[in-house]
Amino acid sequence: MFKLSPAGEEFVKKELTRYETKRSAIIPCLFKVQEENKGWVSPEAVTYLSGLMDLPEAWVNEVLNFYTMFNKEPVGKLHVQVCCNISCCMNGARELTKHLKDTFNVKEGEVSADGNVTITRVECLGSCGTAPMMQVNDNYYENLTHESAVKTIKELM
Amino acid sequence: MPKCTINGKEVEVKEGATIIEAFKTMSEDIAHYCWHPGLSIAGVCRLCMVDVEGARGPQIACNTVVKDGMVITNQSEQIKDIVRWGMDFHLINHPLDCPICDQAGECGLQEQYMKFGQYDPEMNQQKVKKRKVVDLGERVVLDSERCILCSRCVRFTDEVSKTNELGIFNRGDRSEVGTFKDKPLNNKYSINTVDICPVGALTSKDFRFRQRVWYLKNDDTVCNGCSTGCNVKAYFNEEGLFRVKPVYNEEVNGHWMCDDGRDIYKYVNKEHRLLKAKNNSGSQWSELTAGKAMQELHNSLFAEIKAAPEKTGVVLTGQYTNEEYQAVFATLKELGVTQAFHWNDTDSDDFDGLLIRGDKNPNTKGLQNAASAFGALKSVADAEAAIASGSLETVMVLAPENIAVYSNYDKTFAALSKAKNFVWFGANKTECFETTNSSNTWMIPIKSFVEKSGTFTNHAGLDQTFNYVTTVVAGALTMSEAMTLFKGETLEFDLRAKPMTSMKNNHFTLNRGEL
Amino acid sequence: MEVKILSEHYDKPSYKSLDGYKELGGYEDLAKALKMDPKQIVEDVKASGLRGRGGAGFPTGVKWGFLPENGEPRYLLCNADEGEPGTFKDRLMMEAAPHQLIEGMIISAFAIKSHKSYIYIRGEYNDSIRSLEKALAEAYKDGLLGKNILGSGFDHDMDIYVGAGAYICGEETAMISSLEGLKGQPKLKPPFPAIEGYLGKPTIVNNVESLASVKYIIRDGVEGYRKHGTEKSAGTKLFSVSGNVVKPGNYEIALGTSMKTLIMDIAGGMKPGRKLKAVIPGGSSTPILTADEAMSANMDYESIASFGSFLGSGAVIVLDDSNCMVDMLGILMHFYHHESCGQCTPCREGTGWLNKVVHAILKGEAREKDLELINGISNHMMGKTICALSDAAAMPALSFLQKFRDEFEYFIKEGQSKVRGVGYAQMHH
Predict the structure, then answer these.
(1) CB distance B180–A66 less than 8 Å?
(2) Which of A22, C8, C268, C370 has a Cα-to-Cα distance from A146 of 20 to 30 A?
(3) Cα dihedral angle (B267, B268, B269, B274), rounded to 10 degrees?
(4) How many domains does one find in chain C?
């Protein structure tokens, strides 16, 4: 059964009064849950959070399922998101994704056997001038080559 | 009050009214799925498009307020084209499983398709797959693929029942309506979501697969489930009643009714009914028609009661019409009977803030009003005591029709049947009838509320008159008819079921109420 | 030629900190503005001709003028949910000059008499979030935010709200929904946010660049601001140039500068051996221009509009002759399908349908009449929904098909790309 750390619960309490309505705290609190739940939000965590926030589960679940930054399935230790929108594709983003999947032997969206890597294609991350690029967990890595991308991921492992 | 012109006809509307409300006032056709008069405006189905002279482009009628002098049409080629494409957008991912869908015959998609569509679909791609037969608890089933995401049901649970179970999860054409982790939608008003679902996405477990709607007729009546007196439509055919839906009445129930009220039809159907009058004056039961039974009662009891009225009493429940109470009290007066007792197992002032009231009788108020001219009503416990002491020898009981809410039904029956002469007027039969304690028991089948016309006075004192809907038990009487016969008078009445009138063309889509 | 007004100091790392920012004249314009009549600031912003830099190009001062003239609490929201494919200027602004935005916002808030503002930043922009968090803390500490700012008697609180991944939240009413803790779905208009916005209160939503620009209207005055740009497209603007150019990046130019100068000179032109094929002038939603159109267009609202497109967010996506237009449209249709909020039927179903039809072409499974179908679907998505995402998906579809129809017809007939000479599998990986 998922539960936030005491610091996490304290965070939720603060967020609940930070905005004009309690409901506004759903997004920040889901981020906190994701952070403490190995990168994803489980249904159990939704129930827990809705109880903690005293908001209907349906509201929390609507928000959870609307936004792409919340993972509804487990992800690897490194969540590698390669932008495959237009400017990135023009600069080889799809070839890069394929290279990364082959290198780390993982299918798109799945967790590698060692639990280290999940590779997904995502939509525009606002890094079009430095394409191709990827986001690994919270950070951007830009102007990538096949080699530099692999090297970056390996160093982060 | 602004005036506007709609499809060439002038109409005056209330200040602040929207164009779609103006269309409705005029009973002018306008396509729409998401708008519902009892819910907030979502403006998402985009079908209620109209041309407004001088506007930048087509507007949605549901979110445009009528301004004086507006000239509005939804008959232009442009609007017809928009609606036709709007239909197509709604249908490309819809399974088109009408032959196995319970909504067929009263489906918004079918209706609009017949009016605006009737073309070959352009879509030749694979449809989005979603979940089917999702169990949403005691009363409701969801088919996500049929859902057109109008959000009416979500708005209902947010705004009306305020229970917040439903949501639309995910986005784009992956959006799916549902409850979190398919938790049951067990609020007290859940079937309203089925009513307002314009398609077959939400269906009622009680009703699904039981009848095709085109084999049903419907007529308006008043719910007898509690003292609120929601206005309802009963759906029926020769086999009996199948469901009840709310009818809009701003003063009483708005657009809604509760789930308990959905079950009222069940006690009306034959399997729960007392079909014939029964008499047990010795050791065994005999059956006879109700009319014959009342004649015999007149012959055997009327004079006896009149001779010693103090030994007779009447037990009444708040489940009969004002007209029946008047007939009963008039007869009692004629007989000189002064003892009347009130039986109510659900006496409570509870109110859930929306519709459900603790008094489960539709006409307690009416009974009290009728009795006030007669004299004070004593409690049913007083009757039981008087029978036990022998001071009351003859008792007539106006038994409840909705027996589910009478928790002491069996016990009360047993106690009252200790009277020497025991006359039980009622619509239902139950097992407790087998063990009467009286040496002279009569059971008279009474018409249920859908089988008679009359008036209920609701908790607020509002008189609501309703009309005959259909006949289920041909031989049953109203209390008024029973009293007439009891007095030895004759009655011009036809004990046969009234023949069903022929069904109007496209009867259901025209009459199923607000989409 | 670049004209660096906003971006004058973006290359200086010190500009990120409050001290460094102040050394270069930071917050002087705030002090000046706080001594002005708020109404005068609104009038100046109107007179400056500043138009919303987020994409719609609606005059900022006019938008402010829609607020009711009463004491009702009102909110200022900064739209930093930069998500239009091709756009990356707001990110630069927030990371290189967070105080510039904060200063512009306090001035704007003062002008519209708002005591609370939020900066809604897309959640992926971690560096921008950190940068602004730090800057806000500095500003509070320095008395630039909170009670009685710089002794003016004006109170203002500013906070950051972090989005969670939804392109649609860049639409102002979707942003409001998101900030309210709902799904980021646009709200019906009317009522417009200036009347009933965040929590039903009057609300102004402006883009990062628009708000930062207000500072320079105060600094330079209306005349000074109008020194750059054209009559109807006043001032300078940051353009994000990406795609097949030698030097992609953000460049600030005066509005009205020719697109040729921007692409061929400032952004370094095409790669060796490559020819310009097409330009998407204002972010992926805006109708594509052919090379000829692009080379005769100027970077201002009217000029681009005269070619049937939009200046949009200023995201100039440059495509050279190595690109297959069917493939490119496939990428865009996938994007809009992914991002439709799902509320309005024509968009929810239309974006999915367009995506399927374009991918059917790419996979060699399309019929010839599917090209007409694309037009039909697109035309019936335009102007039929609550927000413009539906139009944003339809416009590229219509314009790609109109201007590069031969490539689509070829793909349907041959099952492979006219330009690349290969099928979908080889392009898509």
Answers:
(1) no
(2) C268
(3) 80
(4) 3
Q: What is the mean pLDDT of residues A113-139?
A: 96
Please state the φ and ψ torsions of residue A62, each to the nearest 5 degrees: -60, -45
Contact A143, A127 (CB under 8 A): no
Q: What would the pLDDT profile of B231-277 be if each residue is shown by its tens digit?
A: 999 999 988 999 999 999 999 999 999 999 999 998 899 999 999 99
**Contact residues, chain B, for A62 at CB < 8 Å:** 167-169
The enclosing domain of C244 has a CATH number of 3.10.20.600
Of C293, C314, C335, the domain-final residue? C314
Interval B268-313: pLDDT, tens? 999 999 999 999 988 788 999 999 999 999 999 999 999 999 999 9
Q: Per-residue pLDDT tens for A33-73?
A: 999 999 999 999 999 999 999 999 999 999 999 999 999 99
pLDDT at B432: 75
Nearest CA in chain A to C241: A129
Taken in order of first residue, the domains within chain B and their CATH numbers are 3-89 (3.10.20.740), 123-209 (3.30.70.20), 271-486 (3.40.50.740)
Q: Do A66 and B170 touch (CB under 8 A)?
A: yes
Residue C271: count other Cβ atoms within 10 Å of its Cβ. 11
Whether C383 and B174 lie within 8 Å, measured CB to CB: no
- Segments in chain C below pLDDT 50: none
- Cβ–Cβ below 8 Å for B149 and C357: no
CB B313 within 8 A of CB B341: yes
**Shortest CA gap C315–chain A (Å):** 9
State the number of CA atoms in the 13 A half-sphere of B423 facing the CB: 27
Query: C317 forms bridges with which residues in the sheet?
Result: C242, C280
Interchain CB contact of C368 with B (< 8 Å): no
B180–A46 C-beta distance less than 8 A:
yes
Does the predicted TM-score (pTM) go above 0.90? yes
Q: In terms of CA atoms, which chain A residue is nearest residue B172?
A: A66
The stretch B376-396 carries a mean pLDDT of 95
Q: Give the residue from B50, B59, B124 with the most C CB atoms within 10 Å of its CB, the best one to mutate.
A: B124
Contact present, B443 and B422 (Cβ < 8 Å): no
- The three-class DSSP label of residue B126 is coil
Q: Residues of C with CB below 8 A from B45's CB?
A: 344-345
ipTM, two decimals, is 0.97
